[in-house]
User: Fold this.
Amino acid sequence: LEVEVKETGMCCGMAGTFGLKHRPLGFGLSMAIGEPLFQLFKNDKLDYIITESSVCKIQLEQGTGLNVIHPLEVLNNVIKL
Assistant:
């Protein structure tokens, strides 16, 4: 298992539940804020993204089309090896 930590300093744009609650403005604005991060991850050709935030998971999946998993899923997979 190889994991690369990327400290981007960027936000996915969801802002808690703002992107879910304040449609249509919230969704469009949150996606626009997250776009630089989405592009960074898509350009890096990652297998998956790891985040502990459930709302970031939703936003990152939608913005990148990549699999997004929780850190505990990674640990569980390592233990099973």
Summary: The chain has four helices and two strands. Residues 18-80 form one domain. The chain has one domain: 18-80. The mean pLDDT is 89.
